[in-house]
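Cross-posted from the bioinformatics board.
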Amino acid sequence: MKDFNLVVVGIGGQGILTLTNIVAEAAMKEGMDVKTSELHGLSQRGGPIPCHVRFGKKIYSSLVMTGQADLVISLEPLEALRAAYYGSKEKKTVFVFDTWRIIPSSILTQKEAYPSINEIKASLKKFSSRAVALDASDLVKKQTGGVVSTNVYLLGYCVGKKLIKLKKKSIIEGIKKVIPEKYFEMNKKIFELGAGKR
Amino acid sequence: MASNFLAEKGKAILLGNEAIARGAIESGIGFASTYPGTPSSEIGDTFAAVAKEAGFYFEYSVNEKVALEAAAGAGMSGVRSMVSFKQFGLNVASDSFFPAIYAGTKAGFVIVVADDPNCWSSGQSEQDGRYYSRMGHIPMIEPSNPQECKEFTKFAFRLSEKFKMPVLLRLTTRVSHTKGIVRLEKISKGKTKGKFDKNAYRLRNFPPYLMDVHKELHEKLEKLRQISEKTELNLIFNSGKSEIGIITFGASFNYVMDSLDILDLKLPVLKLGITYPLPEKKIKDFIKGLKTVFIVEELEAVVEENVRELAKDVTPQIKIRGKDLLPVVGELNVEKVLAALMKITGEKIEFDLKKHFDLFKKLKIPVRKPMLCPGCPHRATFYAAKAATDSDTVFGGDVGCYILGVFPPLDTQDFVFSMGASEGVVHGIKKVTGQKAIAFIGDSTFFHAGLPGLVNTVYNKSNPLVIVLDNRITAMTGHQPNPGMGKTGMGEDTKSISIEDAAKGLGVRTVKTINPYNVKEMIQTIKEFLNKPETSVIVAKAECRLLTIRKARREGTNLPVFEIDPNRCKGCEACLVQLGCPAITRGKGVCRIEKDLCNGCSVCFQVCPNQAVRAVKR
């Protein structure tokens, strides 16, 4: 199998690291080599955080190269657009993003415009084979009262649609390893909700 | 951290930094110290999480110099020790770093320094720590991935013990913050108690004996070079006949291997694990038959310059490529190494990187800068400071979360130097200008390097206002305890040191502790103190809001949040424009608070001139 390149983006605190950790554990479970890349500290405070996961037979760099992502998962629409860089038509990249917006201060103080979901989808088309917008946070909020598990919902969607080359079973084991025990059942439920009945 | 972190077999996914800690634990560490700093922090945090269970001592020291001194003291008493910090930490520790090398050690003593090419989390300078190895006559080891982080740490301990000297382990952000699979091996239970030998005369760094030690260090370096020649840490990949060869190490090695894979090339690669002293003979043998050697290293051309020298002896006609194709600024990545390799080899890839980049540049993407969290007490203090002062007042910056005050609309970091520097620099400004000045400094930073600066302003009679942003934690690096909190790195209770008492003890007569969420009181006090003829201190004391929120969530208490009544809001945007709070956005002609983001600090409630903000249940 060719290496699989996943980029997960969003804003500090949205559960991006948790998502990458789940995927990494699942990949190891399936006997593959895996590397992830993350940033901490200054860059974490309300700034955009790109996390990378690469898995396959033998992985050297943890960074996904320009235009070479198989899948980009974004917890925020604008950050999906910022991650367009990692996708390409050639690679048939798929973008999956949550429509819940977190408005950056530049828009508020410099009066830049936040692009509409349709504008974002149209822009992403040039860098992908497909861009999917999901009202994930809204849905998760209705189910759990909070938006903390949106990351797991999006992951569920990607696994259900076979956008990520990992078995459902391994991902659930990954969730078990990464998420604290008392939240496991709730997250499993959200994951399966995202994956849909098949 | 992986749940099986302390297992003695199997494998775990570890962060580079966690793997360093694991390597130390497998090596029988007895004493670990640190001062947190990204990208090194998780080394100490890992120790903090497991020290009790694994049976060794760990502390968050007050600063890196003390951390290094303490680890040296443990090492010279026969207990294996490790100290870790970020690149600027080694600057802070450097005064004791050199004598620690001269003094040597009895048990293994490893110093870990994490550089941050690209300044992802470093607001001071883009520094290449490799020069310290040359200046200090100390061996330097550089891993490329988490498995190597563990293995090389174990090697460093063995080397340190063999040569009776500390060893420097260098990481970079992409090594520290890459996760990968690590094989877990047996944990060796190290000594935690030793004995200081009062007759170890070499610890008394004093002339003329010092010059003997200096000579001895040069002799040791020659012996270390022999090890560097033979060790498996300096390894050749894809050996075989070729006109082009590559020398690389650390994170760059990964980019080289990925680039070769993309181009389907099998060029020989000399991967260095010991980057000082260099294996000169191995390098000479490697480059002898080559027409071109490509040195791939981040930041300065350190190895490249060494190779240039070595080539003069064996192959003066060889083409040496490196910084003519790669930047000295910022970090490397596959794209940059690949582009350089294509130039050298004439190979091409199908994917048009330039076209791709041009297409991306056409997108209009509003920037998103890192910023203080919703409800952060620093925002309240900064707002008050701006409201209380004229535009000529100098705002001295320092190092911590509050460095984010550098961005508009807060604009409260007129300069940023180094830990504790707000006071020193503001003192100089006060002495030569007529401007009012505030030095902003965090609680952890105050203990770290703020005390001498405060003594200096008091003793040398200047009158800045020092505002200690006391959020009861070392927040930016991941919420580590500091001496103001009364908790040690191992989670034990200890005496908490009062910032207010410390300031008074240092001779400051005007000291006041204020909760920064009391905006009015803060504004009035700042105005009053700025007119004092002598140094004054405000301790702006309020817990990091993230901790408050987490505590509330844990305990099931429901903190109120705020909302804006659209009928009362006149759309003046005072809250939006002056606070720059991520929870406040622009609605249709009025402002809006995102309830899911609001952390309920009430500052916008106090700032609103139209009483349009009100508290509600979440």
